[in-house]
User: Fold this.
Amino acid sequence: MSETKKKNISGFIGIVGPTNSGKSTLLNALVGRKISIVSSKVQTTYRGVSGILNSGDGQFVFTDTPGYQRHPERVAQLLNLVADQKASGCDAVLWVFDASSIRVFDQILKLKEKIKNLKRQDLSFCVLNKVDKIDKLKLLPLIQSVWELGLFKEVVPVSAKKSSGVDRLVNILNPVLPEGEKFYPEDSISDRNTDFHLSEFIREKIYQATHQEVPYSSWIEIQRWATTATEQPKSKVETIHATIHVDSDSRKGILIGKKGEMLKKIGTEARKDIEMFLGKHICLKLHVDVQPKWKEDARFLNRYLELE
Ligand SMILES: Nc1nc2c(ncn2[C@@H]2O[C@H](COP(=O)(O)OP(=O)(O)OP(=O)(O)O)[C@@H](O)[C@H]2O)c(=O)[nH]1
Ligand SMILES: [Mg+2]
Assistant:
């Protein structure tokens, strides 16, 4: 049955699912900009971010969330809570799963109760992502089995990385979203300020360049934007100072690297993204600071994850 297309919709759509399923990649594909950071490691998104798509139909606010995970660590529990809180306030939910994982059906079954409780079935959509990595012959039976669970209004195969199938999501969301005034000005692309995005770009490069516990042991603070006149009298380029806080001296050593090479690599890569985002050249100065046990500091974590 075809539903009538609405004209002035204004709605929030939560993007939820297991960690590493491609939620942030999907958000970026939906809005056509790099809003949320991506890495091949689990537990990349911490604080979540909304990307805003203005289209002829209205305004779609897509809210990326941390991936659901079963892990005893305190931070993992808090990230699950962040995802619950962010998604429950949305009008509809896109459940994103990695269709190329052999465990995909089990992952859906394990989240069955949460899927049922988070949003009504007619407001819950299943996005089977990473279909570029799977044999088409396996895809149809998977879609059928997921559909038969009766948990979702639709089951949609996509490749977020290749932006394939993504437009269809916008069309199928339209009929279930409310009509109303836009929440954000037409030229907004995200709900976050510039410093948030800058700190996230730096975090992403740490995720991409370092291994084991190092990415998970750092948080970034944008210290200040320096006026060019005092810092670089001859240059018109603005200087941005950012501090990477890590939880131990040994991790500080890894982040700086031999002769500062690791920090230089992170800085160079982050600067490229920041320049693309700001549309201008900048100079990025990274500093590394040790803040022991920040991941065990309940008050700090609640503030950082915006849970209070
Ligand atoms: N082949 C392929 N890879 C994808 C696709 N979508 C995402 N990926 C990759 O999957 C990995 C995880 O992507 P993210 O977008 O960071 O996943 P996430 O669900 O946001 O992860 P968390 O924030 O940790 O929960 C990255 O290496 C992406 O490049 C896709 O459609 N196809
Ligand atoms: Mg993510």
